[in-house]
Amino acid sequence: MQIKCILNRVQKFQSFVYERVRLVEESGDLILLVDIAPRANSWLKCSKCGRLCRGYDTLGRRRFEFVPMWGIKVFFCI
Hints:
The chain has 78 residues and is mostly beta strands. It has one domain. Helix content is 10%, strand content 49%. It has one helix at residues 3-10, and strands spanning 16-26, 29-38, 44-45, 52-53, 63-69, 72-77. The strands form 2 sheets. A 4-stranded mixed β-sheet has the order 1-2-6-5, covered by helices on one side. A hairpin with a 2-residue loop joins strand 5 (63-69) and strand 6. The protein is globular and about 40 Å long. The two termini are 24 Å apart.
């Protein structure tokens, strides 16, 4: 079973999909990087007013730390 399948089964996000999962080594530590993207044809929530709207995220790529799996740090990359 692939990591992406496990994430879809355990952690479901309605407005995002898991795209690519890769295992990299940074500073001697193993890190699991999971790329997520907005689901096609979905409405997004504005981070300022909280209303649903159509639009694109204009910020640069960034990482969000997630719960470690098997002692490996996991980051969601948007």
